[in-house]
Sequence to fold (406 residues):
Amino acid sequence: MKNSSQSRLPLYAFVVFAFVMCALPAEAHLNTTGMGPFYDGLMHFLMSPEDIVPVLALALLAGLRGASYGRRALFTLPVAWLLGGLAGLSAMTTRPHPFIAAAWFLLLGGLLAADAKVSLRMTTALAALVGLYHGYLNGIGMGQFDTAAVALLGLVFAVFVLIALAAAFVVRLRAHWARIAVRVAGSWIAASGLLMLGWAVRTR
Amino acid sequence: MNMRRYSPLARAMALTVVVFLCAQTAFAHPQKGEAVGFLTGFRHPISGLDHVLAMVAVGLWGAQLGAPAIWVLPVAFPMVMAFGGMLGLMGVPLPGTEYGIALSAILLGAAVLFKVRPPLGVAAALVGVFAIFHGHAHGTELPPGQSALLYSMGFVIATGCLHALGIGIGTVHRWSWGQKLLRVAGAVVAIGGSFFMWKAVA
Fold:
């Protein structure tokens, strides 16, 4: 058996090599794939770190507090995101303010790093505010397309999946070092927010 | 061991596959400055040996001191360093930056070498003060036209990785030979810091 599997190695290597050589072009922003507006919205979120990081921070914060907090954030954030997005679809004027983006990073990262004992009500309020603000900005960006509402649904779906996975992952963490690692991630997010704040002042 | 039985062709093919699988990301439609921003930010802390020495030393010292310093120091350093970076970005002057960076490597290396065990607050304050110098230097050296968010994230993540490297090396502290090795590493950091101090003064 061993010799047989070894003799097949060149064949396996050739097959993998052929697949690698036939790789499709990177369709980063789905301009030409025709995957549809739903997936366009989904991919838009996944390729926007300014949206992903606050969601991730909120998910980690809620997960660190417990399952009930995670559940509350899980349903509040996507709904707020959707409402904000729908409001943004009809607005064409506002641009994202770098100070506010930095403030979100600082606030959520700082709370996470400090393992702040935020109440369930506060977690809900944070989730609602993050969702409304980022959803509104996304809505503004998508407002120029006919299929924006469907793209918004895809985006909200991605938000739901990310917060569900991240919060659930943290809720089940029991090891002390693992929970500290989550807090370290929060300190990195807050530190990034500080740098972004300085950058915003510099480029003002 | 079994690879010796493979033909040269098989080895070459396997190597080629590995190389192709390690291909760099195709930035087909990058948003302006984004791909460059993260990589530039990530490379910045690891591009200067003086910074690397100090950041690894923070991890070494944290590992030597044990809990809770093992995670307090690596958390304090990026946070305060980012504050220093913010000052640098805002154009707030900080005199003697190069001296501060060199001194950080000397003192942190010496702390590891002599197994200095101050109270946690003192250790965190010491690390924090030096972090301001490192952050300020990075903030003022920032290249124009980068993506602020991605640059910042790359910068902080690289710093955290350097601390993690120091902590990883510092785990040898549990063995007696490892404790000696750790002190030798501290000596190397201190010597490196002395070299950079000499360069700064000269």
